[in-house]
Amino acid sequence: MAAPTYATDLTTITLADSGSFFEFSGWSDGVLQSVPETDYFIQGVGCVSCTTSKAGNYSVGFDYGSGITIPTDGAVLMWHIHLTPNSLDTYANGGQRMMIGNSSSAFYHFYVGGSDRSPNPYGGWNNVAVNPDFSSGRDATTGSPTGTWQVFGIGTYLPTTAPSKGAPLALDAMRYGRCEFRVTNGDGTSGYATFAGMAQTNDYNDATNGYNRWGLFQAIAGGYKWKGLMSLGYSGTAVDFRDSDVSFVVDDTPKVTSGFNAIEINVATSRVDWTNVLITALGTQSPGTFTVVDNADVNLDTCQFTDMGAFTFLSNSSCVDSVFTGCGQIDAGGAVLTGCTVQGYEGTSDTAALVWNVATDPDGYLDDMTFVKGAASTHAIEFGTTSPLTMTIDGMVFSGYNASDGQTDSALYFARTSGTINVSVLNGSIPSYKSAGATVNLTSSVSITIEVVDENDDPIENAQTALYVGTTEVVNTDTNASGIVSTSYSGSTPASAVWKVRKSSTGSTKYVPNSGPATIASGTGLSLKVVLREDTIAS
Prior knowledge:
The chain is mainly β. It contains one helix and 44 strands. The chain has a domain at about 445-530: Carboxypeptidase-like, regulatory domain (Immunoglobulin-like), CATH 2.60.40.1120.
């Protein structure tokens, strides 16, 4: 591949560097200043400002000249500012709002800020996403909007006080689209695609690199802020994206559809490696989903995802030693999720935090996972109708789930309505379960590992190794080339055991047989190293 490419689908409504602007009907207490306003702006070389010299209603609007179509899950993005935020009314009263409609006298109001809503209490430019087709986001109406989106702007309401001078209300670049950030290419020679590369391109604002300031993935103190659709790989062009030790937030976007914020990995030949990447959602309307669309090579290691939406993995995905806190449902899709913690899932009652619905034994895929129930009455894992009839789960911990079977918050849920499902539970207690009709047999066992070495700590191959619990033989076999014997034990634990190890007398080196007591522990089983001493007399 080549050097990484960063692009977007956004279409410009206005860059506010030139053109004709107006005040909306009923929101005309100010005076628009000459265009462009060059004393302060966020994008390009200027913005449009308006005085706000008394208590009242103020606005800045722009007529695009024709209606636009907002893509599914898309939005209008608008840069706006009010330099005296304490003079605004509250967010609930629409202190700051976006206005979108078909004329200056027929439009909807979308509340986007106020004296009590960050970032306005601290001042500064804010990039807001609004989908005018999202009817639930409409807070007020002026006139009779037709549903044609042709005029766009910003309004502020100052209830009692106002700045005595200047023009503190300003509008800058407005764009619309799916709000998609497209990342393609990248390699070891030209450089991999990275979050820093995304932010650098997003934040360009010069003649050489472009007047971007898209508002999609912007650098902030301590990391980045993201919104829209992040497409890693696009339209048949793969991406090689590798990054680590990065933190970013999902912007709070209450005036868009739930699917607005989304990360998608496309093109099967793509590769995405993230290590210690932390993503936190700031809002609840569109907290951000993560979907592996094509079965790319995806590797997530020690990542943390907080309050995000649903996750969908595929069989070439690996997410290990990571933490999902307060996130939506995880569709494992045959991915490796060993060592992950899933906590605080708050889905619909009787659903599960994680779904395993592939014809693959989860042994080796879901090992050592920890599930902590949230407040909702949910399960930890749902085994779908495609999951095997014989499975092993290893080292799992379930916390807070109902200890009784057949409940909406039992730890496991089996979706099959008939047949018999046999599950071996290794290195852990037998969890509670609910079945949709199938017969479920859960049996508990723990792992047994005995390693045999000589006095130099070198492995001894073909050492006959046996373990007994009372008169029951747990194992009796020879060690492999690494000096190891492995098995499992399904009896009750803890259990007192006796081990015996000897090396065949063939060969020049002879060993003194060794034996002793051991305890097979609940949950952890037995891991034992045995040293055989050379029998110098026999040798």
